[in-house]
Amino acid sequence: MKRLFFKNQNTWQFIIALIGVVLGLTLMLLAVQLFNKSKNYGEASELLDDNTLVVQKKIGRGAHLGIGKPNFTSLQIKQIKDLEFVASCSAILSNKFEVLVQIDDPIIPSFNSNIYLQSVEREYLDIPSEKFSWDTSEKVVPIVMPRNFLIMLNTFLSASQLPRLSEDLITSVKMNLLIGKKGQRDVYPATIIGFTNSFSSILAPKEFLNWANGKYTIEKEDMRSQLVVKAKKGFFGLLEKYLEENGLESSSEQLFIERLKSGLSAGIMGVVSLAILTLLLSLMLMIQYLQLILSNCTYEISVMLRLGHTVDKIRNVFLSYFSIVFLLMSIISLITFYILAQVIENKLVASGIILEPGVSAYSILALCIVFITFVGAIFYNATVRIRAHF
Amino acid sequence: MVEIELNRVCPNVFEDIDIQSEVWNTSLHIDQGGRYQVMAQSGKGKTSFLYFLLGLRSDYKGEIYLNQKKILEINEQEWVLLRKRKISSIFQDLQLINHLSVAENIGLVPEYADGYNEALIRDMLRVVGIADKWNEKVKTLSFGQKQRVAIIRSLCKPFKLLLCDEPFSHLDEANTKLCRALILKRLDEERAGIIITSLDGEEGMGLKTINL
């Protein structure tokens, strides 16, 4: 029957439509993949739950002049703690001594950097207490690393023409905390037990920080510039409103990853729009091509119907033809998408951002939805047009 | 079997004309297995009459019943079964596909494989003198040869009523005789009836005449 209906067709329109489909599908797969991966970047292993915020005062010019200090007083902390929508609140403890992180592992070159250590009550962190505790008998200090530190480290590795480190890999890297003044530094081996977007400093167990502050303090003043605040369930909006009205802000909003994700999302949304537009146009061209074929073989269709063939049987000839063509285009798009995704992910890795490997299930789901929609449109159009000749 | 009843049927195009015949604006009963010729000059609605019976047109007043069921109430699935197994037809414009061969055109009949094998078809083509055209494209045949292909295509399936719209109009006397004989043979084999439209009447087929 294919020979009967698909003779002497103008294939140019079809070829243009096919190119459009491949382009549209590839862009769509890519956009969905990147959107999903960037959205999930760092979410899976985040240690703070959705109701908890790291809060600080908005820094104005006055703060630098000593007016309106960035530190929280005990009274201010108590006021926040007493709010009816706040479940708990406590100051974040910071180091009052000089500390460096040193990477001491044969897989990457020697690396030293000044860092800040912070600590919060364990109730705010989604880490088993036995993993994130320390006492003086322990040789190794468990730490939680901010993701932007990993990005910085990977940027350094990239510049040194060395392979980047994934979150999994860096947890096995040998690392030391060097505490004390230059020339008198003590070495404390550290191990990474998790990552966070919410803190810009490395988190250490409270016991360790209290102990180290006692031993190495060089500042007398207790710096309480950040608080960790947990809202009661369902009252997160009220907490955000309170912060806005009282000159406070969530520090996580200022973190590099959040800005990166939001910038990336905006770009990806642009690609998604372009993909949808290209897909719609090319699918419309395909449907038009189907209608053109159906118009060109009006005579053949009416002969078949008069001989006793069913509408379904004739429709299925077109349906199977277009489904197979679309399936082939999908395979080509998948291959193109996979290659492009690798290239883009390599570029991101070079910038220190390591996304989850593999193809996102959402990309495949989007492809299935487009396929089903297309087959449905062919089914409907062909049935209606063939039935008109019955 | 197929039984037909017409009750005051009149094509819409004749609505404003006070047309009276043995078909239009009267009652007509066509028996199961009956053999009829519908005679009229051009423009009297012979083709329209057959198209009404095949459910291909419905631009008429009155009622037509096919096996006691109003034609306009017959659904798509029922028409498919009727066209496949009960009613076969030879159209005036033949309804052949020019870019396909004779064999392929005959192969389009959905019930072709149902007891009507290639040897049987080739034999029928031989009887009407076009056995050598089996693999020829239809567009290369003369109208008379095409007419014979259309006749064979209508006979190589099961049917209880054969509707023929001026089937011998482009055939010479000798070929007309051969085709008439073949049709009569198949009618006997299938125990089927026939309605042929004709300008002058078909001789030697034992048909009852209905004047349109």
Q: Can you describe what's shown?
A:
- The complex is a heterodimer of chains A (390) and B (212).
- Chain A has 390 residues and is of the alpha+beta class.
- Chain A has three domains: 2-44 and 259-387, no CATH class; 59-89 and 225-246, no CATH class; 93-223, no CATH class.
- In chain A, 52% of the residues lie in helices and 15% in strands.
- In chain A, the strands form three sheets. Chain A has a five-stranded mixed beta sheet with strand order 5-4-8-9-7. In chain A, strands 2-11-1-12 form a four-stranded antiparallel beta sheet, with helices on one face. Chain A has a three-stranded mixed beta sheet with strand order 3-6-10, covered by helices on one side.
- In chain A, β4 (99-103) and β5 form a beta hairpin.
- In chain A, α2 (11-40) packs across α11 (311-350).
- The longest helix of chain A has 41 residues, at 256-296.
- The radius of gyration of chain A is 30 Å and the shape is elongated.
- In chain B, strands 6-7-8-3-9 form a five-stranded parallel beta sheet, with helices on both faces. In chain B, strands 2-1-4-5 form a four-stranded antiparallel beta sheet, with helices on one face.
- Chain B is globular and about 50 Å long.
- By secondary structure, chain B is α/β, with parallel strands linked by helices.
- Chain B contains six helices and nine strands.
- Chain B starts with a strand and ends with a strand.
- Chain B has a single domain, classed as P-loop containing nucleotide triphosphate hydrolases (Rossmann fold, 3-Layer(aba) Sandwich), CATH 3.40.50.
- In chain B, 40% of the residues are buried.
- The chains are: A alpha+beta (390), B alpha/beta (212).
- The interface between A and B is medium-sized, with 17 and 22 residues.
Which word captures the global form of chain A? elongated
Kindly give the count of domains of chain B. Answer: 1
Radius of gyration of chain B: 17 Å
On the 0-100 scale, what is the average pLDDT of chain A?
A: 82
User: How many beta-strand segments of chain B?
Assistant: 9
Question: Biggest sheet of chain B: strands side by side, in what order?
Answer: 6-7-8-3-9
Main sheet overview of chain A: 5 strands, mixed
**Which structural category do the helix and sheet elements of chain B fall into?**
alpha/beta
> Order of strands across the widest beta sheet of chain A?
5-4-8-9-7
What is the rounded Rg of chain A? 30 Å
CATH architecture title of chain B: 3-Layer(aba) Sandwich
Stretches of chain A where pLDDT falls below 50 for ≥5 residues?
none
Number of domains of chain A: 3
What is the level 1 CATH name of chain B? Alpha Beta
- Please identify the oligomeric state: heterodimer
